[in-house]
Amino acid sequence: MMRKLFSLVAVSALVPVAAMADTFPSKPVTIVVSVPAGGTIDAIARMVAKDMGESLGKQFVVENRPGANGNIAADYVRRAPADGYTLLMLASSTLALGPYVMQNVPFDPIKDFAPVAMTAGLNMALLVNPKVGVSDVKGLIEKMKANPGKLNYSSTGNGSFPHVAGALLNLETHTDATHVPYKGLAPSIQDLLAGQVDFTFDSGSAVHVKSGKLKALAVIGPKRASALPDVPTFREAGLPELEKVSGWHGVFAPAGTPADVIKRLNAEINKSLKKPDSVERIQAMGFESVATTPEALGNALRTEYKNFGDLIAKTKISAY
Questions:
Q1: Does 20 reside within a domain?
Q2: What distances in angstroms separate CA 123 from CA 40, 208, 253, 283, 302, one per listed residue?
Q3: 20 versus 190: which is more confidently predicted?
Q4: Are residues 136 and 230 in the same domain?
Q5: Is the same domain home to 95 and 146?
Q6: Are 44 and 133 contained in the same domain?
Q7: What is the pLDDT of residue 49?
Q8: Buried/exposed code over 123-137 (b: 16+ C-beta within 10 A; e: otherwise)
Q9: Are 175 and 169 in contact (CB under 8 A)?
Q10: Which of 81, 215, 268, 291 is the most exposed, fewest CB within 10 Å of its CB?
Q11: CATH code of the domain covering residue 183
Q12: ∠ CA(245), CA(246), CA(252), 5° rounding?
């Protein structure tokens, strides 16, 4: 009798989860974005939200919660119910790099979130102002060595991907270009275009390269960027260590979200990403359209988190 009672309790405990997965979503879903409206993460989030809403018959609302390198959005979602109705979309730098370069990060990037889907792969390019007068990575290195401390590079802020990439380039090539941090991407690129800084790293400036206003010397990533097919990778340029400063955009849920709900969300996000017009739009932004499993996204986060721990120790970039 007792055995039957325990069996009934066990079965009844599973019913709500199964029922939830079968009926999900039964109300609007909020996608919390870590940047202001108008950015690339926001644009991809709105594209995916529209497709998912049409496919599942429920509204997917994009809510922007920018600030603190994505920590505000991440902490908000971390505290939300683990039911799949509050999702987080952000750049990998918040989870993989932020804990090493920011003080008092309010979450554990590995334990506090459940991976759902990767939405875009970032291929940052090394961009120089044509006035620098170099045509490849070798030429830039030679110029930096011939002019110690005189060349500079911009970034989107202390501890950002471009900052780490520039510091690693200095370390790997025994050069000392000066870091010039900006508050965001727009002023960084504006001053590069104006010739106030010599080079930077960015994934969304293909339009300036194609117009001749900037020159791309190499891209960070395992393969060439779709938007810049003639530009070699850093591995091809003889600096494979730069590949570690790669990144992506992804969707996460609070830890503990039912696996069946995550599986359904993953399938719907991937369906949106695989649409030809979605691929075209994402590539036009300078990114790669990707469709992965939750497990693959989790593996990518763990690998990148370890890589950045090693890189921050190596480059001695301090927290801020």
A1: no
A2: 14, 16, 25, 10, 19
A3: 190
A4: yes
A5: no
A6: no
A7: 98
A8: bbbbbbbeebebebb
A9: yes
A10: 81
A11: 3.40.190.10
A12: 125
pLDDT at residue number 20? 56
Q: Which two tokens stand for residue 73?
A: 């959005």
Q: Which domain, by its residues, includes 134?
A: 125-244
Confidence at residue 178, expressed as pLDDT on a 0 to 100 scale: 98
Residues forming beta bridges with residue 155, ordered by sequence position: 181
Round the average pLDDT of the chain to a whole number and report it: 92
Single-letter code of the amino acid located at 42: D
Per the CB < 8 A criterion, the answer to whether 193 and 204 are in contact is no
Q: What is the 3-state secondary structure (H, E, C) of the chain?
A: CHHHHHHHHHHHHHHHHHHHHHHCCCCCEEEEECCCCCCHHHHHHHHHHHHHHHHHCCCEEEEECCCHHHHHHHHHHHCCCCCCCEEEEEEHHHHHHHHHHCCCCCCCCCCCEEEEEEEEEECCEEEECHHHCCCCHHHHHHHHHHCCCCCEEEECCCCCHHHHHHHHHHHHHCCCCEEEECCCHHHHHHHHHCCCCCEEEECCCHHHHHCCCCEEEEECCCCCCCCCCCCCECCCCCCHHHHHCCEEEEEEEECCCCHHHHHHHHHHHHHHHCCHHHHHHHHHCCEEECCCCHHHHHHHHHHHHHHHHHHHHHHCCCCC
Q: Indicate if 254 and 294 belong to the same structural domain.
A: yes
What pLDDT score does 204 carry? 83
Place of tokens 């779709």: 226
Asked whether the whole model's pTM tops 0.90, one would answer no
Using the CB atoms, write b or e for 27-50: b if 16+ within 10 Å.
eebbbbbbbeeebbbbbbbbbbbe
